[in-house]
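Limitations

Structures in this collection are predictions, not experimental determinations, and the ligand pose is part of the prediction. Treat each record accordingly. The example that follows, with zinc ion as the small molecule, is included so readers can see exactly what is and is not provided: the inputs are given verbatim, and the output is the predicted complex.
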Amino acid sequence: MYVDSHCHLSFPELSAKLDQIRADMAAADVDRALCICTTLEEFDAVHALATGYDNFWASVGVHPDNEDVREPSVDDLVTLAARPRVLAIGETGLDYYRLNGRSIADMEWQRERFRVHIRAARATGKPLVIHTRSASADTLAVLRDEGRGEVGGVFHCFTETMDVAKAALDLGFYVSFSGILTFKTAGDLREVARYVPLDRCLIETDSPYLAPVPYRGKTNTPAYVPYVAQQIAELKGIAPEEVGRITSSNFEKLFQPERNPETT
Ligand SMILES: [Zn+2]
Ligand SMILES: [Zn+2]
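Predicted complex:
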């Protein structure tokens, strides 16, 4: 009934207990998950999850925070995106949170990496999984400049303002909410979630990070994504099952998993 649209099951703290996680997902009615790639070095492990289980899929991309990793070319991304069960390009975007003494001008390498991902999304027709932190104006500017209205996707783990949400919706993107929505301090974000139309919302865990209340601070897993649905349901005044049904249908529209059925 629920889909986790963004998790990192290849990370060691989760991959070591995959059987338990899958059992917990089944018990919580979480029937599918999109496993997100953050480095080319990690891609084979992410892809193995997607080809090994008929309810996991994969993305391909290099996270903006990752330095000292293999830099992807458009060709690299296009080639890997053609592998079975790869539904999306990302996660990609801009993250100026940890500048470590650098200026925003110094972060041109991130903007160039982001452009490479957008070009790969245009070439493959696959949606972008966008990560943006302390960089929303540049993220939108690069998307407008490079995307030319031809790419869609999702702003994942949304924590930005109402204005950024409106801009993302105007560009045709979906907005994905994580466990942060359940945090006591997230009042402004709850107003954003109340505003974003349900037919443009996705839900995610970003496991192993950001476990929702009542598990805040613990290791997150896709089995907790219903807590995000529950929070949205309260904001919208509808049943959590309805949030599950609509966000699952949004997931299908955006990522088209039925086009990539084959597992090994
Ligand atoms: Zn992210
Ligand atoms: Zn992530």
